[in-house]
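Researcher: Batch entry, complex prediction.
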Amino acid sequence: MSPSGALAYLDRHRARFLDELKEFVRFPTVSAQPRHGADLQRCASWLAAHLRGIGLHHVRVVNTKGHPLVYAESRPEPGKQTVLIYGHYDVQPPDPLHEWRSPPFEPVVSSGNLYGRGACDDKGQMFAHVKAIEAHLSEQRTLPVNVKCLFEGEEEIGSPNLAPFLRENRHALKAAVAVMSDMPMLGPGRPAITYSMRGGLSLELNVTGPDRDLHSGIFGGAVHNPLQALCEMIAKLHGPDGRVAIPGFYDRVRSWAPDERRYMAQTGPGDEKILKDAGAIRGWGESQYSLYERTTVRPALTVNGITGGYQGPGGKGVIPARAVAKLSVRLAPDQDPHEIERLFRLYVDRITPPAVRCKVRAAQAAKPALVSRQLPALRAAALAYQKGFGVPPVFLRSGGTIPVVNTFQELLGIPTVLMGFALPDDRMHAPNEKFHLSNFYNGIATSIWFLTATGTGPMPARGETEAQTVECQECSA
Amino acid sequence: MSPSGALAYLDRHRARFLDELKEFVRFPTVSAQPRHGADLQRCASWLAAHLRGIGLHHVRVVNTKGHPLVYAESRPEPGKQTVLIYGHYDVQPPDPLHEWRSPPFEPVVSSGNLYGRGACDDKGQMFAHVKAIEAHLSEQRTLPVNVKCLFEGEEEIGSPNLAPFLRENRHALKAAVAVMSDMPMLGPGRPAITYSMRGGLSLELNVTGPDRDLHSGIFGGAVHNPLQALCEMIAKLHGPDGRVAIPGFYDRVRSWAPDERRYMAQTGPGDEKILKDAGAIRGWGESQYSLYERTTVRPALTVNGITGGYQGPGGKGVIPARAVAKLSVRLAPDQDPHEIERLFRLYVDRITPPAVRCKVRAAQAAKPALVSRQLPALRAAALAYQKGFGVPPVFLRSGGTIPVVNTFQELLGIPTVLMGFALPDDRMHAPNEKFHLSNFYNGIATSIWFLTATGTGPMPARGETEAQTVECQECSA
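Model: Structure tokens for the complex:
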């Protein structure tokens, strides 16, 4: 059954859909920055009103200890599959602000792209599903499947209040499968379904030395400098071969059979493509793996930021009293974030120079996630892409972390279909983030088809799903 | 001849002198920060008016390419020695602001100290000489010596416009000796005359990698991180023994005869004292030298600040496109800043990881300075301290850098008497800078005595001075 009515509706309403997305992007919903709390609240109310407006039911802004969730569902129809549509309306901090060519929260269209923080990650991608629901409902007053929409405001800070909500509402949230769009395709016109994500672990190193900032003339040479000590410690986190030097770090990293590596080499981006997307001259890291492998099936430890000493114009002759580094680890299957945190702490204790003290703080732990490429819902997604973009998708691994995929599996027992509509150069998390508008419209069409195909195709039973999502059948263990 | 009238005048006017110093400190004269340009201009005008008010002549605000100089002199009297009094009215940036217990430019008195940025470095110390001149002039309408006052507004940024001014005005600035107060004593009630300063060289490392900030999930593990690369480079600037690892760095560092090291051990602060002043648990650096030696006759390389990546609250999964470190080198005799810059650049080229680029910027170069302890003006200073503080001073080396000492020697051919009135814990360059008020008043008395003793005692001939200041007679070469 072709959803021709819904697709025609999409074609007639493109301009309005774009205007609405711009309205959505204008909310500065930076979840990491407490001063934006009210903006998240306002955005959640706007989104709830919007979902009510397109005909969804039981729309609620769910307050949490942090930023609110927005929930909505279609009027339940017996005998139809239920799809949980997940997205997030919070965004990354726009820093560094001066590198934006237009203000991050004043979306502008240029050369077929919508520029703005969140245009792509994740407001634009989640909005594609919202508009697909609208298109179905407006044309037929019904949907091919039952949908439950769950949009959170804390994804960029590790979803601290999502799991408690899922735990309390696991029966109300019962569904056969979850779907979300928060990741890149392989390139323009090259759709991809993500079947593997890395886990994540955020860490902070806080190094202190003398009890106040010191004059570097008067004390330089006699007192260890916490900022220098921090650099020495960070330098010891990797070996000269680019491997993480923490003992035991790779112990649980799964090695993959030649078949799977061959599949990855055939379907994934090549080294040149990744370097071009990164704007980098050359690769770095574990030389025995392709860059695609290094960013997906191999773990990575990244220094995300350092704060220490004088950062203003000119110079300042100071030995700073403290220095802080923000780090993140991307975990490959089967690393466990809590074990890695333990190994990290042990190693940091060992490499902390005796003249300074170092405190480690950990946050945002998420296990890696894998979905079987044989899952029927993934086949429905492949068909939808074929219809929405005109080409069949490839199956991709992503190096990013979407903790909810793991959370859905553990708390709701369902797999998640990861249908990315972003492009690799959309600058998610960076200045001048953008969303390619033809991907927005094709994404809506793809979601329209996905709901249709899921409503007609065979869906797995619950037990079957669970088994399939914890094992990747192509993979050696 | 005792300056009893001037000393009595000081006693009667203490409260007013303090009020005037607070007025002086209120100007936020941060020379490193362009937005404070007008504040420096206003402060210079205030200072000029003040110098006119106490009876000095030829008072001028001298505009430069940067912040203005303030010049004034006494009516020249034939047959009297001429003393050049130098100081600076600019201050260090007050960062980090949140660590101040009271606002840096709203001076407050607490427990016998004046708190505020510049209270000690150098407004309070230079103002002691201004008030000494006032005391002499008010009581006797004349001074024991001719004075020329030169107060600059760019000391904290390396005095870029002082040398051109000195060169153009070397005849007008003719003097037998210069005096300045911008350094610590050994402790409360323990005055010191500084006869040795380290040189200085400011450096900046600017590391760049990918052409924009990258998502650390999508690219982490495949692209070198400029912030990590910067840490790796900084870690290589020192060996595990705390010595600077730049080849050739120590080649010109003078070694000192056992006599001089014994003199330093007898007169200088012990390790415990230095650690207490620093608020540090233990020492660090070249273990074969005392901490006093490490901070004075040995060079030091300090990381003053690092900027890179995300520094806001929470986390941000980013590989930053660039990272910057501000460094400073304190040079020991006979290191040359330009040679050290050259060696630094060579070494940085060698240790820059291949996947990133690094640019070095250098600024603020100053040679180390030495004054003979036998110089008659130093003996006059010793007498003045004995009278002003009631105890004889010790002769100290300082680890700090006062480039003008070297500049005065090279351009005017005169030595500089370094009479510190600060305390080691006055937090020069750090939050909560303070000036001990009894040091302010004793400093004024000491300056009154210094002018008197210099006016009556024997002064060296010009040629003799020059020879004495370039050789330290107790030292092996």
